[in-house]
Design goal:
Number of strands: 13
Order of helices and strands: EHEHEEHEHHEEEHEHEEHHHHHEHEH
Largest sheet: 8 strands, parallel, barrel
Radius of gyration: 20 Å
Shape: globular
Helix content: 40-55%
Mean pLDDT: 95
Low-confidence stretches: 14-19
Length: 358
Amino acid sequence: MKVETLLPLGKADSGLKAGQTLLDVRTVAADAARVEALGYDGLAIQDNQDDPYIIAALAAQGTQRIQISTSVAIAFPRSPTVTAMTAWTLAKLSGGRFVLGLGSQVKGHIERRFGMKWHAPGPWMREYIQAVRALWTSWQDGTPVDHQGEHYRINLNVPLFMPAPLDCPLPKIELAAVNPYMSRVAGEVADGLRAHPVCTVEYLERVMMPAVRKGATLAGRKLADFAVCIKPLVATARDEAGLVERVEEIRGRIAFYGSTPAYAATFEVHGLGDLAAELNKLSRAQRWADMAALVSDDVLGKYAVVGTYETIVERLVARYGRHVTHLEFSIPVRSKEDEETLAGMVAELEAVPPPQVA
């Protein structure tokens, strides 16, 4: 199993106020080098408060071995040509270690944060990735580009703006998904799936992976090297006393996800549709303090892995070892002891053989 983490290492984003950020762009290269030294396989970069591609470039400069991926960059506000060029540059900079992770975002953000017109995200994303790949093929082979689709018509590629071929593999593309349609698109045109934290193993196996396999069949593709990545909800601490606080934080996170209509299907598959509806009603009334109390220990156990540092790796492997190829995991690192503990956890997880996705 491949193990990834976010920057900054092992720090949570709960409790941040508007305008605050945990990431210091001035220390990204050093922080990434620290991640590499701990034995991680990969570093994932979020598209939150800093440009993920700039952060990826800084991380690539500070490392030699690990995979650098966006997890995920929002696709639609950036044209396919811009994204294709950025990923191309990052592939050159990293020596082929960059993975382009893409996500669609929800309608409200596309319309009200990015000021764009909304379209059905699944077909839009399929064409977006096809356009990116068409540009990469043109640049690598020196052939004309001619992508003609519903959303993009790209047929101009003059020598002045055409990058030189790569001397490393073309970037892989991983696609964030929750619903079956986007999962099918991942199977059709992507190299991997990035499942949302609220996607349980049961949901992944009953809903998402059958859709991925359907997409691959429709496209005539094999899934032998297809990546299945997840950032699970984890509550862990060095001892039981510290675990109590982490459990309550994760209970609140589950309540928030359950209140979001885009994730309702991940609750309905467990017969928790009524809970999701009630959480949504409370969120619309802005009764945030009342929401976590509705997440029982049984519900918590479905969506989160809970345990002390002594037990958490075993429980992660038991839940995900037969289902995912890439796992995002970390603990807060505040001391040399924490660093040694985390390095041991990473090594244990990496010793787990990856599952066969095909």
